[in-house]
Design brief:
The protein has about 325 residues and is α/β, with parallel strands linked by helices. The protein folds into 2 domains: about 210 residues, QueA-like (3-Layer(aba) Sandwich), CATH 3.40.1780; about 80 residues, Beta Barrel (Thrombin, subunit H), CATH 2.40.10. The strands form 3 sheets. It has a 9-stranded mixed beta sheet with strand order 2-1-17-16-14-3-12-13-15, covered by helices on one side. The chain has a 6-stranded antiparallel β-barrel with strand order 5-6-7-10-9-8. A hairpin with a 4-residue loop joins β9 and β10. α7 packs across α8. The radius of gyration is 21 Å and the shape is globular.
Amino acid sequence: MMVIHRATRSLEHRRFSDLPEVLRAGDLLILNNTRVLPARLFARKPGTGGRAEVFLLEEVAGGEWRALLRCRRRPPVGGRLALDGGGEVELLSVGEQGEALVRFHLDGPLLDYLEAHGHVPLPPYIKRTDDGTRKTEEERDRERYQTIYARATGAVAAPTAGLHFTHEIFGQLAARGVERAEITLHVGIGTFRPVTVERVEDHVMHEERYEIPPAAADAIARARARGGRIVAVGTTSVRTLESVAARRGAVLAEQGRTDLFIYPPYSFRAVDALLTNFHLPKSTLLMMVSAFADRELILHAYAEAVRERYRFFSYGDCMLLL
């Protein structure tokens, strides 16, 4: 774990197990308790047997889902694909960038079907090969690609900063006087999409659903009153808190959707510290971190991370920005 002190522009090389020593009594961790849906399904075209992939994004209404449909030639609207685990998926409409609206025809509930036949939607830079160990790796991914506090099913990507935590670390933090509260932001496909426009301001974020329960809003108010820091675990927690604070002046209990895109310069209203992993170039996540800590300082930190052989991305190392 790299610790970045923004005030002094200094870096420390620590271990994640040092987190209880680095944080202070009275600090409040904000955790995103979203749970990753086994959202990737495989199917075949009737007649030709051609392969297709259905990547679920979000249920919109009445059993209809937004999805990414990947195949050589899409079936016509109204056409169906035969799912590998049984049942069919019907194409209702076609959108942009491979998106489609689909409906499932199954013998039982879709969520049960996904648990039995769905695949964990790992980021594209994590490869699984057909070398006889793929099934074992996928079974491990179902456990490893979830935080230990994941509860609210609905994400297509894990809030990876939370993957570092163990029950032992939580116990040490509690003994230190560091509290924690849970919010929910269901991470969408936009987390995988780089910024490709010439002007950063022209990039459009996909909306994501969030919820700040009353218990979390109350915990934040108490932490502020006692002078504790609000420590966001992951960029998804930052987006949730800042989305509400930007509109309402404080973090209050509510549910909604956010398309907030944070990039330099940005005035943070809700978050005092951030725990996050090392992100891809040209990503919205790296831009948020640069807004939080200063672009030049982050570039220096990343160069240091490369020299020190930090591991990047979802299963990699982390940085704590204070």
